[in-house]
Amino acid sequence: MDEFAQTDADMPLDAPGRRRLPVLLRRAWYGLNQAFRRRIAGMGLTPDQFTVIRTLLEAEPDRLTQKALANAMSSDPNTIASLLERMEANGLVERRPHEKDRRANRVELLPVAREKYEAIRDEAIGLQSHVLEQLAEAERRKFLKQLETVAEACRDLSKPQR
Questions:
Q1: What value, to the nearest 5°, has the Cα angle with vertex 119 and ends 115 and 121?
Q2: Buried-most residue among 14, 16, 80, 143 (CB within 10 A)?
Q3: Number of domains the chain is built from
Q4: pLDDT at position 74, please?
């Protein structure tokens, strides 16, 4: 049994010595993001831009609207709009009016974005592999499934109450 399990169970959720979900999630995300940022610093993309490109590649051939991209990345529309503006200025994406909805834009990857993605992809895979290798092989799938469950619960909580 985990040496902290009994100790954590005996403490209030907000006790200073207890492991806390928000702190651990942030520490994990921040550490991974910073490691990735350092490894790709000279390649002309940020981790967020890489994620935009990957998300758009996975969605093709339909291309995503800005709103759908924000949802797929679990981000807010203003952040995505600002990110796409910078990416457009750097020749990575192009926003085009939606063919049926005048208020929406479809986002299209330009060839240089695909090239940069391919050049950086191995770094992303290597980092993910390194982190997951810290767990026993049998635990990895279970951990990712549990993390997905936590992420969905957080997403549900973030939806506006009606």
A1: 110
A2: 80
A3: 1
A4: 87
Q: Distance between CA 36 and CA 77 in Å, rounded?
A: 24
Cα-trace Rg, the chain: 19
Is the pTM value of this prediction over 0.70? Answer: yes
Neighbour-count burial of 49, counting CB atoms closer than 10 A to its CB (0-12 exposed, 13-18 middle, 19+ buried): buried
Cis before 61? omega within 30: yes
Q: Which two tokens stand for residue 87?
A: 């990416």
- Residue 154 lies in domain: 5-11+18-158
Beta bridge partner(s), residue 134: none
For residue 66, the domain's CATH number is 1.10.10.10
Q: Please name which of 57, 43, 56 lies closest in space to residue 116, comparing C-alpha atoms.
A: 43
**For residue range 94-119, what is the model confidence (pLDDT) as tens digits?**
998 888 777 888 899 999 999 999 99
Residue 105 forms beta bridges with which residues? 97
- Residue 161 is given by DSSP the state P
